[in-house]
Design brief:
alpha/beta; Rossmann fold; 6-stranded mixed beta sheet; two-stranded antiparallel ribbon; 6 helices; globular
């Protein structure tokens, strides 16, 4: 499968948060960079051109019935309170499995969800959901816990994953540095999705890319974690990124 499309789902309106055009996904608009940011990684991942090609239907098994969809594991990662649980819940076709626990006074000064959040619970293990993209592909989504003290779980959750969506709050960019560093270290293809809280971003995408020290080969998209179509578009970019990496490794 060279690219992924979902003709059964309605098309997002042009100009909305769910509309991730090629320019929005892969382009880098001109603009001034902020004064501070994450240190540039030593070894950048290989260049990423967005693939193009026809959609492939599920292969016939020889029994007259189409093969079941291929299962694909995708991680939803990022800092605390950026919208990972909301992202999984917005698109999952089953009731998502969550491990939410009430935040207590013990977390004061440790767990900061940000001033714009009314968050009262936190993920203490993982979130899980799934969505069928088309007849040949089904995504299994694993949301990671955001706090640093749960970092020991990330290696286990990343095992067998095809790619990752790093969810970012544009007002708290430093919270997502550990997730980006982790995926660069383990070599897992990832996409940075900037969650538009209240429909707005605190910084433009050019400034965010500079502050995160990610190259042009890493897709940077704006999306709304509450909107199913917007989450779908962000996940399709993750699939494109992962499939391109797999094709490149096969050629090498």
């Amino acid at each position: 499968m060279d690219s992924v499309r979902s003709p059964e789902w309605p098309v997002a309106p042009l100009g909305g948060l769910a509309a991730n055009s090629a320019a929005t996904r892969y382009g880098t608009p001109a603009g001034a960079a902020p004064a501070t940011g994450r240190a540039t990684p030593t070894v950048p991942p290989p260049p990423y051109p967005p693939p193009a090609g026809p959609q492939h239907a599920a292969p016939d098994t020889g029994t007259g019935r189409a093969a079941p969809p291929i299962p694909v594991k995708i991680l939803i990662a990022g800092g605390f309170g950026v919208g990972k649980t909301t992202t999984v819940g917005a698109i999952s076709e089953i009731a998502p499995l969550t491990t939410e626990a009430e935040m207590t006074s013990a977390g004061i000064g440790i767990d900061d969800p940000g001033g714009r959040s009314g968050k009262t619970t936190t993920t203490v293990a993982m979130d899980f959901g799934c969505v069928t993209i088309d007849r040949s592909l089904k995504l299994y989504l694993f949301g990671t816990p955001g706090q640093a003290r749960f970092g020991f779980m990330w290696d286990d959750l990343a095992r067998g994953a095809l790619g990752a969506l790093v969810v970012v709050d544009s007002a708290r960019l430093d919270d997502c540095y550990p997730a980006i560093d982790f995926f660069e270290r383990v070599g897992l293809p990832f996409v940075v999705g900037v969650n538009a809280f209240d429909g707005r971003l605190a910084l433009d995408l050019t400034s965010i890319r500079w502050a995160l020290a990610i190259g042009d080969q890493v897709p940077l998209v704006r999306f709304d974690a509450r909107d199913r179509l917007s989450v779908r578009d962000a996940l399709l970019v993750v699939l494109d990124r992962a499939l391109d990496r797999a094709s490149q490794e096969r050629r090498d």
